[in-house]
């Protein structure tokens, strides 16, 4: 089983991932939902977005709730956000983490930009939440659970839904 630490220093590390396998994630990942994605893509120019998203990052499409050192996360369906995500992928994102199937055009954008799609089945959020060590809001605190969060994670398990060779789990 592979293990990756984000932000990823070397995108070549993604080449060892194969579609369908389990991967453990360590380090810092960004979490956001629809509202934050809309704000990011409408308010900030590309250069500023690069600084916010940090090259080599992993973006988790998830709501986050954090109270009294207990953090819960809940992956959300990726397909709803494809159109806006396509504009962020070329900014250096190396992993998108979500739930469910996506379009052929979206997969092509991932592959062309050395980005993998990782996912987790719905309904198992409690399992993922155990791997969050710290959570802090980076932007849009007024959005609460849908703000832009930075999660410090250790051993967070996901499946590789698409790899750099263009293999896709849902085909």
- How are helices and strands ordered from N to C? EEHHEEHEHEHEE
What general outline do the C-alpha atoms trace? Answer: globular
Give a short account of the largest sheet.
Answer: 5 strands, mixed, barrel
Examine the coordinates and then state which fold CATH places here, giving the name of the CATH topology.
fumarase
Overall description:
The chain has a single domain, classed as Fe-S hydro-lyase, tartrate dehydratase beta-type, catalytic domain (fumarase). It has five helices and eight strands. The protein is globular and about 40 Å long. A five-stranded mixed beta barrel has the order 2-3-5-6-8. By secondary structure, the protein is of the alpha/beta class. The mean pLDDT is 92.
Topology:
Elements (H helix, E strand, L loop, with lengths): L1 E5 L15 E11 L1 H10 L2 H8 L4 E10 L2 E6 L6 H7 L6 E4 L5 H9 L3 E4 L5 H5 L2 E8 L8 E15 L9
Parallel strand pairs: 1-2, 2-3, 3-5, 5-6
Antiparallel strand pairs: 2-8, 3-4, 6-8, 7-8
């Amino acid at each position: 089983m592979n293990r990756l630490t984000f932000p990823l220093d070397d995108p070549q590390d993604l080449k060892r991932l194969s579609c369908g396998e389990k991967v453990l994630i360590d380090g810092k990942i960004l979490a956001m939902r629809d509202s934050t994605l809309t704000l990011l893509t409408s308010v900030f120019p590309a250069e500023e977005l690069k600084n916010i998203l940090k090259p080599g990052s992993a973006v988790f499409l998830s709501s986050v709730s954090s109270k009294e050192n207990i953090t819960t996360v809940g992956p959300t369906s990726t397909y709803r956000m494809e159109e806006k995500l396509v504009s962020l992928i070329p900014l250096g994102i190396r992993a998108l983490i979500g739930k469910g199937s996506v379009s052929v055009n979206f997969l092509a954008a991932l592959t062309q930009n050395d980005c993998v799609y990782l996912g987790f089945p719905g309904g198992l959020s409690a399992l993922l939440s155990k791997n969050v060590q710290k959570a802090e809001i980076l932007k849009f605190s007024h959005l609460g659970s849908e703000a832009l969060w930075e999660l410090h994670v250790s051993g967070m398990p996901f499946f590789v839904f698409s790899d750099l060779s263009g293999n896709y789990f849902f085909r």
